[in-house]
Design brief:
Number of strands: 5
Largest sheet: 5 strands, mixed
Number of domains: 1
Number of helices: 3
CATH class: Alpha Beta
CATH topology: Cytidine Deaminase, domain 2
Length: about 140
């Protein structure tokens, strides 16, 4: 449950929702998720899983964004982060993980293990909802 709480906190920061609002319940309605292109975000976390920095890594096309592992881990390495949570949206509104989403997640987990930066979750944001790939065991 702590992981879901941390994921919700990251989502609230990405979408500018104040910290004093009640924590979102998994799959709840989110505001501000309707964009016409994919965006890929990384949240860098310290050893207590506090957010050090949020960074929009990519602004992609209508249905894709290319993720380069070396670029994704650059900032967490600079910040000496202990862990990361990554998130991206699906402009279609679906929160279903594609085979590419699962492959990218597996690659990020493997790279994180080598770099000693744990990948805590990969969130997919759809129209008014989100999904935790870790909770669904997609890529883990």
């Amino acid at each position: 449950m702590a992981l879901i709480h941390r994921s919700e906190h990251v989502l609230s920061q990405i979408f500018g929702i104040g910290f004093h609002v009640p924590i979102l319940s998994h799959g709840s309605r989110l505001c501000h998720t309707a964009v016409d292109h994919e965006e890929f975000w990384v949240a860098c976390l310290d050893t207590k899983n506090h957010v050090q920095r949020l960074h929009r890594l990519y602004k992609g096309s209508l249905n894709s964004s290319v993720v380069r592992v070396c670029e994704l881990f650059r900032l967490p390495l600079q910040l000496n982060s202990a862990a990361i949570i990554v998130a991206h949206n699906h402009p279609s509104g679906s929160t279903q993980a594609s085979p590419e989403d699962i492959d990218v997640t597996r690659t990020l987990i493997q790279a994180g293990e080598l770099l000693e930066i744990e990948v805590l979750d990969h969130l997919i944001i759809g129209r008014g909802a989100w999904m935790s790939m870790r909770e669904q065991r997609l890529g883990w």
